[in-house]
Structure formats: C-alpha cells, structure tokens
Write a structure and sequence with these properties.
By secondary structure, the protein is an alpha/beta fold. Helix content is 38%, strand content 15%. The strands form six sheets. It has an 18-stranded mixed sheet. Helix 24 links the parallel strand 12 and strand 13. The chain is globular.
Length: 957
C-alpha cells in the first residue's frame, strides 16, 4: 500500500502542476494530460495489487514497474518546468528555438512512458494477475504465520523477567471490587511481551480462584473472523456432547453470538482473553451480535453486574479506548538494562551462572543486549540463538551483524517478521510517513514540529476540507504513536507530542521497507574508509531521498551526477564552517530538489544560485549560524516552509513567495521592513517583529492560525496593534507576544478573535487586560516577565473556558494570590514557576473544582488544598534528599512519589490507585473515588508538603 500511496501523491501532483503551471505546457499539454489520465487508470489496480505484493513476487515486480513509470513521468515534468523557467532570461530568438526543442523532447519522453504503461497493462493479464482484487483467502505463507503465532494459555513461558509488578497490578484489576463488566487492554509494540503477561495473569492462582467456572482464551489475529473466535470460546466454557457440538457448529455467525451471549449471561462471572486484536472495527465485530433484525444490536459479552472481565492484547491504543473508554489501558514498557541482561542471561546461559564464562562473552553479550533496546522478543531470540554455541567466534559473528541474525532466526517467528505485521496493517496513507522515519539516525530524538512539516513538503499529507494539512499530519503522527510504531519522548503541558523517537528494530523495519519501495537511495554515515575515492557508486540513479549523518565536506567531495532526480536531502549531526563553494554542488546536481534541510550545519553564506531550485518546498536553515539570505530566495515560488533563526536581517522578498505556509524567522538582529501581506496562504508566522507586523495589512492574511511577534515595541500604538490582531478574527488560534527587555507589550483587546485559544505573553505589561477583553474561548494562557504588581487571579479566574494557566518568572511581583469561590470553573492545570516573591496561594472553597495538576515553588504556602478533590499531580522544582524517607514516614498511601529527572531535579507526586508508594501514570481513575477518600488523600498530601517545605526552609536558613 506504500506504493499505492506514493503513486497517488505523484499523480495528484502532476494534476496540480497541469493547473498551476499551465503556461509552461503550451504545445505538450494534450500529451501530458493523457499521461495523467493513464496514470489515474493504473491507480485503480494498485490498491489491491499493493496488498498482494507481500506474497507474490510477480505482483511485486509489476507494482514496482508502475512506480518507476510514475517516477519517470514526475521527473520529466519537473525537468521540463525547470528548463522552461530558465529560458525566461534568454533572448527571444534563442528562447523560441529552445522552447520548440524542449517541447519536442518532452513529447517523445511522454510518448515512451505511455508505451511503457501500455506494455505494463498488457503483461498484467499475461502474468496471471488480471483479477487482482478477486478472492479474499489468505496466502499460504500468511496462514502459516498465523498458525505459528496462534497463542494458547497453556504454553506459559517459564523464563519471565520484569513482569512481576505488572502482573500484580493486572490481577488486582481483574479481581477488583468493580462489579461492572470491564475491558482491560494490554497495549504495546510487537514483541514487547503482551501475550506472555496475559498468560501469566490468566494462570495466576488468585485469578483462577476468582473465576472458577467460566474462563476462555481466544486468538484473534489480523484476519479477524468472529465465528472462529466464538467457537474457540464456546468450546472452552461449555460442557457439551458430541451432538451438541455438531449442532453449534452449524449455527450462523450471528446465531453463535447470541448463543455465547446467553451462556455468559447465565454464569456468575466470566473472564475472556482476546489475544492479538488489531483494530477497533475488529473489536466491534466481535463484541456486537445482530439478531434476525439487522438493525437490532446487542453485546456478545454481557454486563450482568457480577464483575466479569475481558482482557485484550493489542498493538493499538485506539482499540483499548474503543473497547472500554472507562478503563485505563496497561501500556507495556521496554525492559530496563538490568532486566534485559537478566532475561538474556537466563536464555543464553540457561542454568549456568554467566560469571563462569569468559569475560569476553559477557562483554559481547552486554553489547548485543544493548542493541535490543529492551525489546523482550529480540532478547529472547538472541539468547536462544547464542545458547546453541558458546564460542567467541560465533558470538562475534552475531555481534557484527545482529540485525540480520535476528531477522532470520526463527524464520516466521523472527523479530522482523513479527514487527512486519504492524507495517502490513498500516493504512496506505500512513505507510509513506512510516517509511520517512527510515531517514533518521539511530536513537535520534525527532522534533515533531519539523517532522510534520517534512511530511507536508514531501506530499504525504493531502488537504482536507475544514482542516489544515498540519492538523492532518498531527493526526497521522498520533495514529503511528497509537500503533506503537513511534515512541513519545516529550509532551507539552497540554499533552501534545513535542519530541519522539523510533525503536531501533522499528527503524530497521522502516529501512528495509524503504529500500523495497525505492523510497530512498541510502542513509549515509560518511566515513573515510567508505569513500577511498570520489566514486558515487553507492548512489542509485533512482535515489529519491538521502540523509547524511556525518562529515559534510567528504559528502560534498563525491560526484553526485548519478542522482539527478533527488527530491530530499537531509543532514544530521554536522558541525564546522561550510564555505560558500561547498553548497554549489547542491544546486548543480539536484535541480529538482523539494526538501533541503541543513539544520546544524555551520554555514557562512548561501549561494545566490539557491534561487534556481524552483521546486523546493522545504528549506531548513535553523542553527546554522547564517546571518544573511540572498535576494534570490524570493525566486523559490513553490517554497512552503522556511525555517531559520538568528538572521541579521530577513531580505524583503518574502512577499514574492505566495505559496509560503510556514515561516519561522525568530530572533532577527535588525528590525528592517518586511512585507508579508501578499502571502495569503500563510498559516504560521513566527518571529516577525512588532514594527514589521504593524506595517502590513493583516486583513489579507486570512489563513493565519499561529502568530509569534517579538522585539522592541515602544513605538507601536496600542489601538493600532489591537486592530491588527482583530483583523485575524476568522483564523487566528495561537498568539505569542515577546517584547524585548526595555519594551512594554501594547495594550491589547482580543475579544473579537473567537478562535484564539492559546495566548503567550512575555514582557512588561502596564496592566493586565480586563476579563472581557480576553478571547472568549481562551483555553491556555502563559504569562512571563510581565512584572504585574496586582494579583492577576481576580481577572483570570473569570475566564470561563481556561484549562491551563502558567505564570512564569517575573509575571507577578506580589507576595500573595487569592482565588475566590467559583473561580476558574474549568481549570485543569496551574503552574506557578519562578515567582520568587510569592509566599501564599489562598484557594477558597468551590474554586478550581476540576484542577488536576498543580506546580509551585517550595516557598509558596497553599491554603485550601483540601478542597481540590480532583487533584492528581503535584510538582515542586526542589528535590530534598530524604524526601522518600519523609514520604513513607508520613504514610502517604494514596500517592506515589518520584524524583523528576534532569539537572535541576524536583519532585513529582501523583495520586495512584495501585500499591501505595508506587506512581501510576495514567490519570482518570480518581474520578471514581468517594468524597471521603479524596479528602483523606488531600489531607495526606497537605501534611507531607507542609513538612517538606519546613525542611527545605530549615536547610536554606
């Protein structure tokens, strides 16, 4: 399906170019138009063909030929537009002659592609793949894989490491006092141990005792067949004669569902394990039964109010929330280094002590275990492989090519085979986004802001009605996270993902699939021994993308003329100063480049020929030390994203780039005029100065959603500035104002911006805006360095939809804050950070009824904490050695305490449901607590915080 998506994107782009670049196609438009229609016709077969190519090499080759034909068409059209553009500087006679020549050449090339497409179409029938979409039976290899993976509760693992605490928590959930039928989900990436943990819990003594009469285990798989699942369950929970079994087997699927429903309803309580559920639709098919009336739906698994449970294992968080929105999914964690080594030791050395072996084996083993990054399946496979041969030579062989060994070991049950199921299950629109992850270095922390913009520039994200492409891209990202193909590294205060990474084996899978689809040429770690000469033999002429992980100068010295159709070039972990001549090869060799990211590469200058890259959509120059951009940057008429910071000045040519959507120009050194009001597609503008902004007609920026204005603002008049913001009333969602040290933020009325939900203000304010002047839908507010003398709470507490309030250093200079009864009716997060003079926060009864997270400095005393019944999380930026001892001494049983990682440290206290003293990160369960237990929990917290504050104060004095 990746090919189908990539071809679809390319065909759409060709169609867009026929419209946008109409003037260039005079004389060849008819041919290009027919080619576009032929390619669209081929798309009709691709979706089904793409599904089949995993199993049939003939289909795989046929799909590959279509992909290459589409790439060729795209290359021809891009080069034709480039050549036509370059002719505009030539004299009329020369221009006229070359136009005719170019049209003739492109016409012949298009004709050749059309003949090739006809040949591909004819061979489809000759190859026996005429009716690709017919039939739904599984392939032999797929059926074999499903049979090998089929789980039973009886084949329990004897060597289980790192699951003891998780098993105890799950057992408590299964036998808990809640009498409603609940669905508990084990969620995690392939190979992380979901089925192993489910077996351990299923066979646990307390579970056997709690569900003595009705337990069943059913394997679901990607090929979800409700009838088969129902039969698996019925055979385990029903004591039937041979005749009764034969009768049941004759029932239709909906009749089986009804039979199972009635049998479960008659039991006291039941436990059903559904192993390997892949999608919400699979759960819906399993859980819902239809009677003879197709409009009548009932649940196969009844809720008799007897404490019944279903336990699911799945790779998708979406399945968990769909199955039971009230239950917290149990998210499986990768093993720690210590537990990883323990599991490996017990698998590789069996019953023999690892210390009795040579130290070099132990050293090699530890290095290989580190490469597994805590994935239990990889560790088990590796340990089993190495247990067969204890020689140093064999261990060294595996160490030097560990990924290849793990991929093939166990054949159909190998690590990569298991992970590949997650790739196969991806919808077509997500596969290119997943393949794009192959470009990043191992263990690289990825900025999601940048990732989303790159996906958009690549053409992986299509525009949708009433939704920006960036919002759509974020949905794609969250889908990959929910499928456990991307790991979250850092989130914002409102839980948006800011940074992410990819597990090593998931990255290897992405690389393998990217090579299959000719998605990129190669990822290059440029080392001297790899390039003894300037040979470019490593690069395929069909390479579309390259990422460079090391020495830029060595890469620049290689001949690149064999890869003229490169579309994306990304650099990572680079340093040093790049001479202007070293960037020339990019414009000479990669003329149809769409993505160029030089972030982190030290650059003194960008050559003016950069303006010849007219197909460029993304230009990343952040953290390059670059101070000037050439005026020719204005020639990049297809540029969508420009990301740069710390320029001396921004050239006043941005107004020419009418396709610009995302403009990042933070921390300009000079405040020269900058015209941007002609860029009507602009959605994000970050870093324009107050003086630059006020000179533009903001009413023309009808698509602007996110705006950051910074710099000096003493010459900006308040009413004029307010009016300029008010003109964005139809689109603005996020506003960040950052004044320089000596300036004051202009007075601002934003009530006319109904979509503005996020506001950040950093800088001196004469006084706080009145409540009625704030946006009525404001949900997140951050103030910093505002130097307010008056308590801001009486104004802010009246904001009806405020969910998050962050007051940073210097925002308020007073000693006390008071929140009145009924203040902040919806607030969930309150952070008071670096307010050095604040000693008291007084919260009246009835205030902040929904507050869940509170962060404050150790100096601040809080009155009214006992009334915050939904509070689940408290953070304090100061860590006191002995905090844990104090915590347990006071017996704070409703809360868990941990130290915040990082140089500054701090403590993090979170209300938890499980074993006292152990943090439990998922929130939401606390809403079911009784009023009495909530008050008791808050009294414990208040007691601990008071004693903690006294100890810190004593140490400081």
């Amino acid at each position: 399906m990746a090919t189908e998506a990539l071809v679809s994107f390319a065909v759409e782009r060709i169609g867009d170019m026929l419209i946008q670049e109409a003037s260039f196609f005079k004389g060849v438009r008819g041919q290009v138009d027919r080619l576009h229609k032929d390619l669209r016709a081929m798309q009709c077969f691709l979706e089904e063909a793409d599904k089949k190519q995993e199993e049939d090499s003939r289909v795989r080759n046929w799909v590959s030929e279509i992909r290459e034909a589409v790439y060729d068409a795209e290359d021809i059209i891009d080069m034709f537009i480039l050549n036509a553009q370059s002719l505009r500087t030539h004299s009329f006679p020369e221009r006229a002659f070359k136009k005719l020549t170019n049209r003739y050449k492109v016409g012949k090339k298009v004709e050749a592609i059309q003949l090739g497409l006809q040949d591909i179409s004819n061979r489809r029938e000759a190859l026996g793949i005429k009716n690709i979409g017919e039939g739904t039976s599984m392939s032999r290899s797929a059926q074999m894989l499903q049979d090998l993976r089929r789980s039973t509760p009886h084949a329990e693992e004897h060597v289980v490491v790192g699951l003891e605490n998780e098993a105890d928590k799950l057992v408590n959930q299964l036998i808990g006092i809640d009498q409603r039928r609940r669905v508990i989900s084990l969620v995690g990436m392939g190979g992380i141990g979901k089925t192993t943990l489910a077996k351990k819990v299923y066979n646990h003594t307390q579970v056997l005792k709690h569900f003595p009469d009705c337990r069943a285990w059913a394997y679901v798989s990607q090929d979800c067949r409700p009838r088969d699942v129902y039969m698996q369950i019925i055979k385990q929970i029903c004591s039937s004669t041979k005749e009764q079994v034969e009768m049941v087997e004759k029932l239709q699927e909906h009749e089986l569902g009804a039979f199972l429903h009635e049998h479960l309803k008659d039991n006291n309580r039941y436990l059903i394990v559904l192993d390997d559920v892949w999608s919400p639709s699979d759960w819906s098919c399993l859980a819902k039964r239809s009677s003879n009336d197709p409009d009548c739906l009932g649940n196969v698994f009844p809720d008799g109010g007897k404490g019944s449970r279903l336990l699911l294992t799945t790779r998708s968080k979406e399945v968990a929330s769909h199955a039971d929105a009230r239950s917290i999914p149990h998210e499986m964690r990768l093993l720690s280094k210590k537990k990883s080594w323990d599991l490996f030791r017990r698998k590789a050395f069996l019953d023999i002590d690892a210390e009795s072996y040579l130290p070099d084996l132990k050293e090699l083993g530890e290095k290989m275990v580190d490469k597994c990054n805590g994935l239990p399946l990889a560790i088990v496979v590796l340990g089993g492989l190495l247990s067969k041969n204890m020689s140093h030579i064999e261990w060294r062989k595996v160490h030097d090519n560990i990924n290849a060994y793990l991929a093939k070991e166990g054949s159909q049950t190998g690590v990569m085979t298991v992970l590949n199921l997650s790739y196969i299950d991806l919808p077509s629109y997500l596969k290119p986004c997943f393949l794009h992850l192959s470009l990043y270095p191992e263990d690289y922390v990825i900025s999601t802001r940048k990732l989303l913009l790159l996906w958009i520039a690549e053409g992986f994200v299509l525009e949708q009605d009433r939704q920006s492409m960036k919002d759509t891209a974020e949905i794609y990202l969250n889908e990959l996270i929910n499928r456990n193909l991307i790991q979250v590294v850092r989130t914002s205060v409102n839980a948006r993902v800011m940074e992410c990474r990819v597990h090593d084996f998931i990255r290897e899978l992405a690389i393998e699939k990217a090579k299959e689809h000719n998605f990129f040429g190669t990822n290059i770690v440029v080392e001297p021994h790899l390039f003894p000469s300037s040979s470019s033999s490593l690069f395929s002429s069909k390479s579309r993308r390259q990422s460079i992980y090391s020495d830029f100068e060595r890469y620049a010295s290689i001949e690149h003329y064999s890869t003229p159709y490169l579309r994306s070039l990304l650099f990572f972990s680079l340093g040093g100063i790049c001479r202007i001549s070293q960037l020339d090869f990019i414009t000479k060799c990669f003329k149809v480049l769409r993505v160029l990211d030089l972030e982190g590469l030290g650059i003194e200058n960008v050559p003016s020929v950069i303006g010849e890259l007219i197909h460029l959509r993304y230009l990343g120059l952040r953290h390059t030390g670059l101070k000037m951009l050439p005026l020719t940057i204005g020639n990049l008429r297809n540029l969508q994203t420009l990301d740069i910071n710390n320029l001396k000045r921004v050239p006043d040519v941005i107004w020419k780039i009418t396709n610009m959507r995302y403009l990042y120009i933070e921390e300009q050194e000079q405040d020269d005029p900058l015209k941007i009001d002609t860029v009507q597609n602009l959605q994000i503008l970050s870093g324009i100065t107050f003086n630059q902004w006020i000179r533009n007609n903001s009413s023309k920026l009808t698509c602007l959603e996110k705006l950051k204005i910074e710099g000096r603002c003493e010459l900006v008049e308040g009413v004029e500035f307010s009016n300029s913001i008010a003109k964005l009333h139809s689109s603005l969602k996020s506003l960040y104002l950052k004044a320089s040290d000596e300036s004051s933020i202009p007075s601002l009325a934003m009530s006319s911006c109904p979509h503005l939900c996020k506001l950040d203000i950093k800088g001196r304010m004469q006084k706080l805006t009145e409540t009625f002047q704030f946006p009525r839908n404001l949900s997140q507010l951050t103030l910093e360095a505002c130097r307010l003398d008056c308590d801001p709470m009486p104004i802010l507490e009246k904001l009806p939809k405020l969910l998050t309030l962050i007051l940073r250093a210097g925002s308020y200079l007073g000693k006390e804050m008071h929140v009145s009864a009924n203040g902040f009716p919806r607030l969930k997060i309150l952070q008071l950070l670096g307010l050095s003079k604040l000693v008291l926060l007084n919260i009246e009864k009835g205030a902040m009824p929904w507050l869940m997270q509170l962060q404050f400095d150790f100096k601040t005393e809080i009155f009214g904490l006992n009334e915050l019944l939904n509070l689940v999380e408290v953070k304090n930026p100061f860590f006191l050695f002995g905090a844990m001892i104090l915590f347990h001494k006071i017996k704070v049983s409703f809360w868990g305490l941990m130290r915040i990682a990082g140089a500054k440290g701090g403590i993090h206290i979170r209300r938890q449901k499980g074993k006292p003293g152990t943090p439990s990160y998922p929130a939401g369960w606390f809403l079911g607590l009784t009023l009495a237990s909530s008050r008791q929990a808050l009294e414990q917290l208040a007691d601990f915080l008071e004693q903690y504050r006294r100890r810190i104060r004593a140490i400081r004095h």
